[in-house]
Design a protein that fits this description.
The protein is mainly alpha-helical. The protein folds into two domains: 21-233, no CATH class; 254-457, no CATH class. It is 82% helix and 0% strand. The chain contains 20 helices and no strands. It has helices at 3-13, 19-51, 54-73, 78-84, 91-122, 128-135, 137-142, 148-154, 159-183, 187-207, 219-253, 256-269, 271-290, 297-332, 340-354, 360-366, 370-410, 412-421, 427-447, 449-455. Helix 5 packs parallel to helix 11 (219-253).
C-alpha cells in the first residue's frame, strides 16, 4: 500500500458511519482504554511496591517529571495539528510531522544528558545523574512512533488503536516486573520503560494500518505546523508547571521516601483528571471541529449533553476515591505507604473542581486557536505556580495542597474567557457541578479528617 493510499483510506473510512455513532464508539473505546490501562497500572504498582522501596519510586517520580517536562517544553502540538488541520490526511504533511518528531526525540535526549548532573547535585541524589539520561533513551524511540496513531484519533477510529495500546502497556508492565525481580532497584523502572517504548514502536508499525511514514520536510507543511505549534509550545511549558510542578517542588521539600509515598497517593487520586483528559483529547477535538457550538443550537445541545455526561462520570469517580482513600491504601499497600491514604483524599477533593471545565480547552484547539489556548494556560500556570510554590515554601505539603485548591478557583475566569470566545461556555453546568463538588469534598475531608491530618505531618 502506498503512502497516498494509506492516507486516503483513513479519510474515506470516516464518513462510512454517522458522526454520532463514531463519537459514541470513540468515547466508549477511550473509557475502556483508560479503565483497563489503569487496572493494569494498579496491578503493576501493587507488585512493584512489594519488590522495590519508596525511595526507588521517589527517584523515578522525579526522573519522570523532568522527562515529561522536556517533552512538554519541546511540544509543537503535532497530534492536535494532525487532528485539526485540513491537510491532516495528506502524506507530505504527515511525513513532515514524523520527521520533526524524530528530530525532537534526539533533542530531548541531548538535553537530558546536559541536565542530568546539575539536577543530581541540586536534589542531592547522585543516582539521578545516571538514571535520568538512561530513561531519556525512551524519548528517542518515541520520536519514531507513526503518525497513523493521530490519524486514527482524527477520524474517531479508536478500536484497533486501543487494543494495540493496551497490549503495549501489558507487555511493558511484564518487562518492568521481570526487571524488578532481577535488579531489585530503580533500574528496573528505567529499563522497563525503555524496553516498553521499543515494544510500542514495533507493535504500532506492524499492526496499525495507515500511511507509512518516510523522512520528508515539506516547507509548506513545516510552516503550518510551526504557526499552529508555536503557541502550543508555550502552552505546554505552562502545562508542565500545572501538571508536574508539585513533584518538582516537593523534591526539595520532602525526602525521596516521602516523595514516593506522595506519588502513590497522587497516582490513585488523579484518575478522574487523567480519564477526563484521555476522553477530551480524543473525543472533544473532533466533535468541536465537526460541530462548532457557535454554528447552531443543535450543536450546542449535543456538546452540552456530552459535557454533562463526562462531568458526572468524573465527579462520581473522584467522590468514590475521596471516600475510599485510607481503607483503599490500607487494603492495597503495605504499611510503609499508609500515609498515602490521607494524601489520596485531599488530592481527590481538589480533582472534583479541576474536572468541571475540562472540555472547554478542546474548543480552542479544534478551531486552531492555539494562541487563545496559550493565554489561558499561561494565566493558569502563573496563578498555580505562585500559590503552590508559596504554599510549599511556607507550610510544606499542606501548603502545597491548599495552593492547588485555591488555584482551581482563581483560574476559572480565564477558562470562562476561552469558552465564551468559542461559544461553548455552559454556566448552569459549571454551577451545578461546582456545588456538588464542594459539598462532596467537604463531606469527605470531614469524614477522613484524622487520616488527612496525619498525612500532612512528615
Amino acid at each position: 500500500m502506498s503512502g497516498q493510499e494509506g492516507g486516503s483510506e483513513a479519510a474515506a473510512a470516516a464518513p462510512g458511519r454517522s458522526f454520532a455513532s463514531r463519537a459514541l464508539g470513540s468515547g466508549a473505546w477511550s473509557m475502556a482504554n483508560f479503565g483497563l490501562g489503569q487496572i493494569m497500572r494498579l496491578g503493576s504498582n501493587l507488585i512493584l511496591t512489594r519488590i522495590l522501596s519508596p525511595d526507588d519510586f521517589g527517584l523515578m517520580a522525579l526522573v519522570t517529571s523532568f522527562l515529561i517536562g522536556l517533552t512538554m517544553f519541546s511540544d509543537m502540538g503535532f497530534g492536535p495539528s494532525i487532528m485539526q488541520s485540513k491537510r491532516g490526511d495528506e502524506p507530505d504533511f504527515l511525513d513532515t510531522i514524523w520527521t520533526l518528531k524524530i528530530i525532537r526525540g534526539f533533542m530531548i535526549f541531548g538535553a537530558a544528558m546536559v541536565m542530568a548532573w546539575p539536577l543530581a547535585l541540586f536534589y542531592d541524589a547522585p543516582l539521578f545523574g545516571w538514571v535520568f539520561p538512561a530513561a531519556a533513551c525512551s524519548m528517542i524511540v518515541g520520536g519514531f512512533l507513526p503518525t497513523r496513531i493521530d490519524t486514527a484519533a482524527r477520524h474517531l477510529q479508536l478500536g484497533r488503536l486501543t487494543v494495540i495500546e493496551l497490549g503495549n502497556q501489558l507487555i511493558g508492565i511484564l518487562l518492568t516486573i521481570a526487571a524488578a525481580l532481577v535488579l531489585q532497584s530503580v533500574w528496573a523502572l528505567v529499563w522497563g520503560n525503555v524496553l516498553g517504548a521499543l515494544v510500542q514502536l514495533l507493535m504500532f508499525r506492524l499492526f496499525l494500518p495507515g500511511h507509512r511514514n518516510r523522512l520528508r520536510m515539506e516547507p509548506e507543511a513545516r510552516a503550518e505546523v510551526m504557526k499552529f505549534g508555536k503557541w502550543i509550545f508555550f502552552s505546554t511549558i505552562c502545562g508542565f508547571l500545572l501538571f508536574q510542578g508539585d513533584r518538582i517542588i516537593l523534591g526539595r521539600v520532602l525526602t525521596l521516601n516521602q516523595l514516593g509515598i506522595y506519588n502513590i497517593g497522587l497516582f490513585l487520586a488523579t484518575v478522574p483528571a487523567m480519564l477526563g483528559s484521555s476522553i477530551a483529547g480524543r473525543l472533544f477535538i473532533p466533535m468541536y471541529r465537526q460541530h462548532p457550538p457557535a454554528e447552531s443550537a443543535e450543536n450546542t445541545r449535543i456538546l452540552a449533553r456530552t459535557r454533562a455526561g463526562l462531568t458526572a462520570l468524573l465527579l462520581a469517580v473522584a467522590v468514590i476515591l475521596a471516600w475510599a482513600g485510607p481503607p483503599l491504601v490500607e487494603l492495597l499497600y503495605d504499611p510503609r505507604y499508609a500515609a498515602a491514604g490521607g494524601i489520596l483524599v485531599a488530592i481527590a477533593c481538589i480533582q472534583m473542581l479541576q474536572v468541571i471545565p475540562l472540555s472547554y480547552e478542546s474548543a480552542a484547539l479544534a478551531a486552531g486557536d492555539s494562541r487563545g489556548f496559550f493565554v489561558v494556560q499561561s494565566t493558569r500556570a502563573a496563578i498555580y505556580s505562585a500559590l503552590v510554590a508559596g504554599g510549599a515554601v511556607l507550610y510544606g505539603l499542606p501548603g502545597l495542597l491548599i495552593g492547588q485548591a485555591l488555584a482551581q478557583v482563581l483560574c476559572y475566569p480565564a477558562t470562562v474567557w476561552l469558552a465564551r470566545r468559542h461559544g461553548c461556555w455552559d454556566p448552569r453546568h459549571d454551577l451545578v457541578a461546582a456545588t456538588l463538588a464542594i459539598v462532596a469534598a467537604a463531606t469527605a475531608l470531614n469524614g477522613h479528617r484524622d487520616a488527612v491530618l496525619a498525612a500532612m505531618i512528615p
